[in-house]
């Protein structure tokens, strides 16, 4: 099947791109072309105009257009074909995992967090070492200190640090790496949550007793109790997040 023409059909003429401001020209050119692709000016399968035509419309040199097209190819939007030209292959750029997490709602992230941390707590109860237990005791004490302090951010950081210590005690590096990817989004979500509820006054979602019970379940080598305790604690936070949507 022959490639679609770069020339729009009659009645659907594309507006000229217009010249760019003198600034990072490659980034501007890439953004302008990306907007045209996302807006449907060049549907998937369409061959883009040649570098000379694009350079004239954008008011830049061909080398700038070439670099902009290379950036779009790296984002998965276009694909050069030897001897045929550059073709649109997608209207949305590829996203890496951290970018996808940043775009996700914190409630969606929390649902996945529950799955990860329940299993992590169970594994921690089975695999914890003396060093892990010492780290958990320190993290719990730091959380208690932050609980009594005036800074909400310090309390949230201490809370996350305790959960991180539980995940570390599971001794699964892939699980630990996944949780580390979630942490920035979780922190932002908890900071947003303080506008809805007083996180330090909520015995359901952030109770000191619940976290102490979690540490003791891990210490006692009781996977069922550890998983049950953290699931109940995280479910309270998720409920508050869903109410604030």
TrEMBL record:
Residues 1-10 have a biased composition (Pro residues). It comes from the Bacteria. Residues 23-91 form the HTH gntR-type domain. Residues 1-24 are annotated as: Disordered. The keyword Hydrolase does not apply. InterPro entries: GntR_C, TF_FadR/GntR_C, Tscrpt_reg_HTH_GntR, WH-like_DNA-bd_sf, WH_DNA-bd_sf. Keywords: DNA-binding, Transcription, Transcription regulation. PANTHER family: REGULATORY PROTEIN GNTR HTH (PTHR43537:SF47), TRANSCRIPTIONAL REGULATOR, GNTR FAMILY (PTHR43537). This is FCD domain-containing protein. It comes from Actinomadura monticuli.
């Amino acid at each position: 099947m022959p490639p679609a023409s770069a020339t729009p059909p009659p009645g659907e003429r594309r507006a000229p791109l217009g010249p760019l401001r003198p600034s990072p020209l490659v980034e501007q050119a890439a953004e302008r072309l990306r907007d045209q692709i996302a807006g449907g000016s060049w549907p998937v399968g369409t061959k883009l105009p040649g570098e000379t035509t694009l350079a004239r419309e954008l008011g830049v040199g061909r080398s700038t257009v070439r670099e902009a097209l290379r950036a779009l190819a790296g984002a998965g939007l276009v694909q050069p074909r030897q001897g045929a030209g550059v073709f649109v292959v997608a209207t949305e750029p590829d996203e890496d995992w951290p970018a996808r997490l940043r775009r996700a709602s914190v409630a969606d992230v929390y649902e996945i967090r529950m799955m990860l941390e329940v299993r992590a707590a169970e594994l921690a109860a089975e695999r914890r070492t003396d060093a892990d237990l010492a780290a958990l005791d320190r993290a719990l004490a730091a959380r208690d200190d932050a609980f009594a302090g005036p800074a909400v951010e310090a309390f949230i950081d201490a809370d996350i640090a305790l959960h991180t210590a539980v995940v570390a005690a599971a001794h699964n590096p892939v699980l630990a790496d996944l949780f580390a990817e979630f942490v920035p989004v979780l922190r932002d979500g908890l900071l947003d949550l303080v506008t809805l509820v007083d996180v330090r006054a909520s015995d359901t979602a952030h109770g000191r007793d619940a976290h102490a019970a979690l540490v003791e379940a891990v210490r006692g080598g009781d996977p069922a109790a550890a998983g049950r305790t953290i699931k109940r604690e995280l479910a309270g936070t998720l409920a508050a997040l869903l109410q604030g949507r």
